[in-house]
Amino acid sequence: MVRKVLFPVAGFGTRMLPVTKVVPKELLPILNRPAIEYVVDEALNSGFDSFIFVISYGKEAIIDYFDVDLGLRSFLAERKKESLLDLIKEVESKVKTLSAVRQKIPEGLGHAVLSAERLVGKEPFAVILGDDLIDAEPPCLKQMKELYLELSAQTENHSLIALEEVSLEEVSKYGIVEGERISDNLIKIKRMVEKPSPEEAPSNLAIVGRYIFHPAIFEYLKRIPKKGGEYQLTDAMQLMIEEGYPFYGYIFQGIRLDTGNPKGYFKAILHYASKDPELREILKSFFL
Ligand code: UTP
Question: What is the three-class DSSP state of 252?
């Protein structure tokens, strides 16, 4: 079983500065809900029941958001704001088991994942990036969890990561994989390269923000060198592949919205607004 899900949310979010100087990018609203709530919903709807957050200085508000605010509850109750009270209770009841660990210095995604080693323990676990929203039915992580369990019947010690086809101009923003196609949407990965140039890229299949890892990843994260001040998750995965741990890539079904940069953030808002009948009318009125 894969029960635990890790949310590394300790980065500085520099692409969204200046707002991220005071507001974590994971709390920026997509309509009236913070981005992190969309990925928490994805994990809940994928059957996860143990949530681990990797936070850093100034990002406590991310976990406070899911905690019970008794002061706010009594304020709303005294004023008979029943529907708002229900709304707050709904958010506060989402995450039943929440643990958090601090990454004191943001030394990269690999280092953020390693910070959670003691909370995860020795079991397979999922990782979701808090700024990579995926609108999909069934939820992306659920698709992956089912596939991971199916793969367990044929293989062991494996990991599964989400892949998306990107344009050649974009490969240098991602980890890119090379592998053998097992089916239309499943790849057995042979090699990964972090942020290659279009000439060096072995394919246009990019690693995106969903992973299910074998717990051996922690040992490998301890072995990789720091590059450009960061420990790259891709380097640890590549080393695991070299030492015989099977890695599979899944080209998920769904729409990915990267809220970690201004254009992607704007697109995410438009995407979710266009799904709401009232907001869609407002959007249309802009273009008449
Ligand atoms: P990003 O590279 O997208 O986030 O990492 P960032 O570093 O915060 O943003 P930029 O590049 O400066 O704009 C993906 C995820 O990994 C987390 C981030 O919070 C984000 O959710 N992360 C990144 C950490 O938890 N710790 C780190 O040291 C780096």
Answer: coil
